[in-house]
Structure formats: structure tokens, C-alpha cells
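Progress against Task 2.4 (sequence-to-structure conversion) is shown through the following example record, which the project officer requested during the mid-term review.
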Amino acid sequence: MTFTVVLGAGSTGMATTRLLADSGERVRQLTRSGGGVEHPLVERVAADASDADSLTSLTEGAAALINCAAPPYDRWPEEFPALAAAQLTAAERTGVGYVMLGNVYGYGPVHGPFTEELPMSPTTVKGAVRARIWENALASRARVTEVRAADLLGADAYSLFNLTATRPLLAGDPAFLPYDLDVPQSWSYTGDVARTLVAAARAERSWERAWHVPSTVISARELATRLTFLTGAPGPKLESLPLEEIHRLAGTDPIMAEVPEMQYLYRRPFVLDSTLTQRTFGFGAAPLDDALVEMAGR
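C-alpha cells generated for the chain above:
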């Protein structure tokens, strides 16, 4: 019986591991702490994913290597290159298919929908990191693919909306968001991220190109309104953080310090086109309500 290696125990790593195990597949989940999904088919291993030798040993014999791990958001330039290089080395040495979870930062500002055919054209530090990781992967001897998601929704989703808005909204308190509240934005449910990662890992046609997670397009205001309606919380009290306030907060908080350069995504329409993924793999985005109820812990 083959197994799949999944790196990370954040919201996407947990969802991916759980999806594989629930479908009857063995999973080796690697995290620094050795934590992860408790399931009879999941082997949880404490490992340093930036150690190429260790990762190679743990990946030998696997059907695929799926990476859902990432350094802290404010440490990408310092830590992401070594992490990605170790995974790429392990994939080259073992010959396993290597599936990376990415995002749209490498595209840079785009007029119109984001499609998988767009070139890498980053204008930010974090975008340059993501673009270089993908370019290095394509230039390697490994079989590689990247699944690109928008801002995440779902249980323990690591996203600006969940970090800044979910808790105050559920409590009936004001929420201050670093978005234009009324422009269309794309949101990816962690369950759909997992489905896309697994589908890409299983399909021979997936290699050497990127895939977009089927996502919901809705404004931040509409998203907050739906969240409060579903949970019975008071109607949302929302304010859009002005740019000068974002820059002020950036001087006191390391995560907020990473937000100003990404404002091009949050101040104008961001539509993640997933037509190719839907046509190829046969599924679309799960109902938005499922993601919001899960994110609220209800």
C-alpha cells in the first residue's frame, strides 16, 4: 500500500491529510512538532522539512510529496528558499511527484481575472519569493506542479480576514479590515484547497503547470454579512483600514508590516479563475456557507 507525504499541520496540511486518510490512503505527515491528524492511516513524524537528507529518507517510496508548510509570514525571504530547495532536492532524489501549495503573489498586479496562463511578474518581496520557487521547480529534474489559492476560509484558516475579522464579528464587535470592503475578492475554502492538491497529486496530466483552487468571489462586506447571519451574530460593524493606518500598524506588528506591499490585491477586484481546474478535475468550489460555519467553529 503506497503512501503520500504531507508537509505541515496548518489548516491546509490538516485538511489535505484528513482527506487522503478518509479516502483510505496512508499518509506520512511531517511537522516540526510531530503533531497532526489523529487517524489510523496517518503516521505523524517530527521532522525538519528544510533538511534535504532527512526529507529524502522520509519521502523514499511515497506516491507524492505535498507541501502545505511555510515559514512565518514575516520570514519568507530569509526562510522560504531553503525550505523549498530541500523539498525540491528530495523530489529529485526520490522521483516522487512534488505538489506545492502556492498563491497568486508571483503574478503581480493583474487587470482582469487571474488565470494559470499568466507569467510570473512580481512587484513585491513576497511575490518575488513565490515566483523564484516556482521557476526553480520548473527548471529542476523533478515532476512538479503548483496549486494556487486565494485568501483562505475554513477552520483555523491563516488569512487576513480570519485573523482580523472573524473573532470580533462573532462577538458583535467592530472589525477593521485592510481591504476595500466592496470590491469583489476571491476566497478559497481549505477543503477545496485539499481537494485540488490531492487531485493534482493523482493525475499524470497535472505536472509542469499550475492549477487554481475553485474559489468563491464575494466582497469582504458581503462575506462578513453572511458570516454573521449564519452564526446569529449581530449585523457586522465594519471599517476599512485606511492606508495611513495600515502603515502605522506596520511599524508595531511584524505581520502587519507585510500587509502594505500586498494592498494591490485588496483594493481592487481580485478574481481567481479556476476554469481549467474545474474542467480537468470535475469539481467546483464547495458552498460558501460550509466554509464559514467551519471557520466559526459552529
